[in-house]
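Supplementary Methods S3. Complex input for the manganese (II) ion-bound model.
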Amino acid sequence: MVKTKTTTLGEFIIENQAAFKYSSGELSKLFNAIRLAAKVVNHEVNKAGLVDILGNAGETNIQGENQQKLDILANNIFIQTLRNREIVCGIASEEEDDFIPINSNNGENQNKYIVLIDPLDGSSNIDVNVSVGTIFSIYRRVTPVGKPVTLDDFLQAGREQVAAGYIVYGTSTMLVYTTGQGVNGFTLNPALGVFYLSHPNMEFPEDGKIYSVNEGNYAHFSYGIKEYIKYCQKEEGNRPYTSRYIGSLVSDFHRNMIKGGIYLYPKSSIASNGKLRLLYECNPMAFIAEQANGKASNGHRRILDIKPTELHERVPFICGSIKMVEKAEEFIHNS
Ligand code: AHG
Ligand code: MN
Ligand code: MN
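Predicted complex, serialized as structure tokens:
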């Protein structure tokens, strides 16, 4: 067997720094902080099964440590890691009502990037040993460097993203990200604490056979979505499709990108904009999807073209293999 060169995430970040058009090393430092926080969160997620021994959230564990819910813990780990290293000027998170301006210890913060995160996605899966994830999205600030960040810095359309990625804490832990030059996936070797490039140039197959939607909400879906689901189930051509729904966007997306599939969280009569958050769930996943030859839509328009108006706004989300997303849109338009 020919031995191929192994590349670590650290090496990959350095090697690709020069190819990045605004390269100043600042983004590389930011990725290194995310890489570090991901390893710490991975460690915590892996320990989650010991919760009965070590104590539940809100209790004091056997070592006298105060237990936190894992999504709060993951939130604190990411925020502290980014804050301590003074590499961003602001952070917004699913777990924080407002964005957090980051001030420098020695005067004005000269950093130009802001980060938005969903620190733990699919957190209801933790108790039952099912995969969860972290999602991140990075923008250049629009207000002047050196001044405190404002809401305008966070309410940018998704197409302005500089980078986006996710970590999936699954049977193995992977970090997948894009800086607008394709999508690459890195797998953590837990013994060494090193991420290795395992999935270079990831791409959605153009078409697929998997549909992922919470069908428990079927009765509340619009006519177009109901008809599309019936189409997925119909025996014809390469159908019926296979239904797979983990209930963790990161994990469902990751599987669909590798195997070919579509993820839907549409609007319904009980949730007029669906459930997923535009800024730290849909936009980063949409950027990755497009960079991987996939598509992301709210049923009518490109997710990345939506101008956000609120930090925590929700949006219907349809994302995956291009032909499948186009077919779902067709059903919505014709209904
Ligand atoms: P979070 O754990 O960050 O709140 O996100 C959960 C999201 C998403 O990951 C998942 O796809 C979706 O909620 C599942 O929602 P339903 O349980 O309504 O299907
Ligand atoms: Mn989430
Ligand atoms: Mn979350």
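The chain has two domains: 9-199, 210-333. The chain has nine helices and 13 strands.
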